Amino acid sequence: MRLAQVSCLVVAVLLAAPAYAAVDGKVAGLNEPTFAALATIKQRNPGSLTQRETQELATAIMADQVVDDPERDLLEEMTQSQFRNITVTPVGDTTRLVKTFPTSGNAKKVLLNVLNPQLDLDAAWTRGAGGWKDISLAFNNGPEQETRVLAFVQGKLAEQWEASNMGNGYKPIRDMIGKLYGYSNAAGADTKTGRTILYRAMGQLDRSTSDAVPDFLYNWTRPEGYL
Questions:
Q1: Could you write out the DSSP letters of every residue in 17-40?
Q2: Which 3 state secondary structure label does DSSP give 69?
Q3: Which of its termini does the chain have fewer beta carbons within 10 Å around, N or C?
Q4: How many whole angstroms separate alpha carbon 83 and alpha carbon 120?
Q5: What is the Cα–Cα distance from 193 to 136, expressed in whole angstroms?
Q6: In what order do the strands lie in the sheet containing 26-30?
Q7: pLDDT tens track for 72-88
Q8: Do 115 and 75 touch, CB atoms closer than 8 A?
């Protein structure tokens, strides 16, 4: 392909890209219900939104159970770290506008949860290999989610450990480890992540019980291979 053709293609792509794709302090085309909710909140509080106010905004955004592109742009603008004015206009009308600011602390967490919803771990746990795949995806979604997933899986493993002893050959915990290991190796699974979760959760369980869990029960699940 010639350089001129490449240049034309790049220009065409840039022109086709929607305005809300960039984090630039501007949100255009926000649907009327969400715009009205934001405008009402800003009439009460012209500054940065509180946690209660972001919960109110989140409710308006999720009223139709869909986060559309302008709403996603709004969420991204309000959860980015650079503090600056954000100008918001509704769909089909550039003369009406609302100015707001990025959020912080718990208020920011509310909006981040709308932007990237937390997985319902209990529900995923009941869905077998598919649910384990979703749990693995959640694990890779940042340090906070990694900690959350490990604590959850450790809790599930702990239930089986409490029912395990030398008399029953540690069958409850062995069966749980085997099942999760199998899920980690299922078609379409992220094998390394699944085994990492299992191995690390078992390690945490072992440490929490003062090393009472025999290492041979779970050492073989180590992603890098048996110790």
A1: S-GGGS-SSEEEEE-HHHHHHHHH
A2: helix
A3: N
A4: 32
A5: 6
A6: 26-30, 86-90, 98-100
A7: 999 999 999 888 899 99
A8: yes
